[in-house]
Design brief:
single chain, FAD/NAD(P)-binding domain, Guanine Nucleotide Dissociation Inhibitor, domain 1, 29% helix, binds flavin-adenine dinucleotide
Length: 551
């Protein structure tokens, strides 16, 4: 049993309870990031909005292992899922699909969805994290089944899936601001010297060939989910060098190409080519080969609320099983072979014990490290590094334009810190010409993650404006006076970094193993690549393991 004796009499109970709440920051408000909307106004910019993020108090409680009040009761649940991100919801969906009814999904936040959470205001819904997936690889039967289930794939024409036209990105899709004008597409082209263009073409031809190459075991070299990729050592060894070293060795020097590759790695991994492995860098380009009856290869699927839409679809059948505002605090083995899980309800502020037969931890490994202090997992948690991100949802009356291609769904500027912005309104059917909400993505990768994270947590609203506004002014000169609101969201541990020697390391292999056939793991960080598809498959794999272990 965790916690300490707490409620002796009413008064001491009040005092102790208050001091506990003070310690976890619930009363002082000293830790300012959480998911509640609190409006702040910047006089300097005459802009208002909020500064939010995942529940910092809960994180603090776990990190410092503050003692909880004792639990008053213990109840039983057959299978507990911790975390309602894509991996947790996917695990729940699989259990339900296979006839399991006795399971619960606990989520520490007031809302479900993890990094696929979203927001909305009177103009539009918008993503706060994950915002798109590409059409499924045709050999990914489980994902294709799910996309059929939720009407993203409406039917098949011959062998090829037909995707719901409402969910394919509406045209125009992507543009890049380079050399003073917006060009179509994100690969630098406008004003780019011939020699650089040749190098870009050489790289694209190389990854195109890799995309269609199989290893000595007959599997594609790079595939989604990652664990269906070839084990061919000739290619797996690319995980032991950085993408930057690989590109240098191959003689790629064009500043335009290197900018594009840095952009791609920042976009998918939150880090530059110097910080991801060559295997991961190539995976971005060579793993997606989805074909459709009505869309180009690798076409993008998106919704106004980003992947929040697909997350809600996953959760639709699971409502009765989900409990939000429930922080899983600790796991303990008990003598009857079950596991005792201590849970802190952030709303009622009460502790509860749940005795479970099986548990699927769908939280990131830095959290599991805290939860599993009573177990010997024997892995190196320090190898798990997460990139912090800032997301800014900007409501503006106007987007002053430079010459060239007009507003697209994805809008990126060459040589800026961010990876650009998406225009959430693009997927709305009632497109409004006046007000827009644009979602701007800034990976915080100029310093090591721990330092960047600390700096991100320390900045106030106006300091974020000082970072974001100058870049917006480069992209859309004069925009500041047209902005109505900017809402910031900070992800301290946004995406797992596929650093060199991480994805195919013994450490990650060990981290995926269940403990005593009772504690199972599913989170995108266990794939090494933080994308919807990996979280989706992680959830299914863990649920399958639970079902097998039970039978
Ligand atoms: C800025 C950003 C942009 C992204 N863009 C894309 C994109 O466009 N496309 C894409 O495919 N992917 C994108 N991703 C990756 C995204 O992370 C994955 O697609 C997916 O949402 C990850 O799901 P998950 O279940 O693995 O993890 P998470 O989303 O991290 O879910 C874990 C859940 O566990 C909960 N939890 C943690 N600890 C506890 C505890 N102790 N008790 C109870 N609950 C707990 C958390 O609150 C969270 O809800 C993006 C990520 C970020 C940060």
């Amino acid at each position: 049993m965790s916690g300490q004796m707490f409620y002796k009499d009413e008064f001491s109970a009040y005092l102790k309870r208050r001091s506990f709440l003070l310690r976890i920051g619930l009363i002082t408000g000293g830790i300012f990031l959480n998911s509640c909307y609190k409006k702040i106004r910047s006089a300097k910019y005459n802009i208002q909005g909020a500064l939010q993020g995942p529940d910092a108090n809960a994180g603090h409680l776990l990190r410092d292992k503050l003692k909880l009040p004792s639990a008053k009761n213990t109840r039983k649940v057959k299978t507990l899922i911790v975390g309602s991100g894509i991996s947790g919801l996917s695990a729940g969906r699989w259990l339900k699909k296979n006839g399991e009814t006795d399971f619960e999904i606990l989520e520490l936040e007031k809302h479900i969805g993890g990094n696929s959470y979203f927001g909305s205001n009177k103009i539009a819904s918008y993503p706060l994290g994950a915002h798109y997936i590409t059409i499924a690889n045709n050999d990914d039967a489980l994902l294709i089944d799910f996309l059929k289930e939720i009407d993203v794939i409406t039917h098949f024409e011959g062998q090829l899936p037909y995707y719901n036209d409402y969910y394919l990105t509406f045209d125009p899709e992507e543009r890049l601001l380079i050399n003073g004008a917006w060009q179509e597409g994100l690969i630098p082209d406008f004003g780019v010297p011939i020699a650089d263009k040749k190098e870009v073409r050489r790289f694209l031809a190389e990854v195109d060939q890799l995309k269609n190459t199989r290893g000595n075991d007959g599997k594609f070299l790079f595939n989604i989910p990652l664990n269906s990729s070839s084990t061919d050592e000739n290619y797996r060894k690319l995980d032991k060098i950085t993408f930057e070293a690989y590109l240098k060795e191959k003689g790629y020097r064009s500043k335009y190409l290197l900018w594009y590759l840095n952009y791609a790695c920042k976009d998918d991994y939150g880090q530059k080519i110097s910080h991801v492995s060559a295997w991961a860098g190539l995976h971005y380009f060579a793993s997606r080969r989805g074909m459709a009856a009505n869309a180009a290869q690798n076409a993008i699927l998106t919704w106004p609320e980003g992947n929040g839409w697909i997350m809600k679809k996953l959760a639709e059948q699971l409502k009765a099983h989900i409990k939000t505002s429930n922080l899983c605090y600790e796991l303990k083995p008990i003598s009857n072979g079950n596991t005792l899980v201590t849970v802190w309800n952030t709303k009622t502020q009460l502790t509860e014990n749940i005795e479970v037969e099986k548990i699927i931890l769908c939280a990131p490994q830095f959290v599991n490290n805290r939860l599993l202090e009573n177990f010997n997992r024997n892995i190196d948690y320090k190898a798990f590094n997460y990139s912090p991100w800032l997301i800014a949802n900007i409501t503006t009356n106007e987007l002053p334009e430079s010459k060239g291609v007009s507003l697209c769904w994805d809008n990126v500027a060459y040589n800026t810190s961010s990876v650009g912005y998406v225009n959430a309104a693009q997927q709305h059917l009632n497109l409004s010409e006046d007000k827009k909400v644009i979602t701007y993505y800034l990976p915080l990768c100029d310093f090591e993650p721990a330092i960047a994270r600390l700096a991100a947590y320390s900045r106030n609203y106006e300091q974020w404006l000082d970072i974001v506004i100058p870049e917006l002014e480069v992209i859309h000169p004069g925009i500041t006076k047209a902005i109505e609101t900017i809402d910031f969201w900070v992800w301290g541990h946004g995406m797992i970094t596929p650093a060199k020697d991480f994805i195919w390391s013994k450490n990650l292999e060990k981290a995926k193993l269940p403990i005593d056939n009772k504690i199972f793991f599913a989170h995108s960080d266990l794939s090494g690549v933080s994308i919807f598809e990996e979280a989706f498959h992680q959830g299914i794999n863990a649920a399958k393991q639970v079902i097998n272990a039970t039978s």
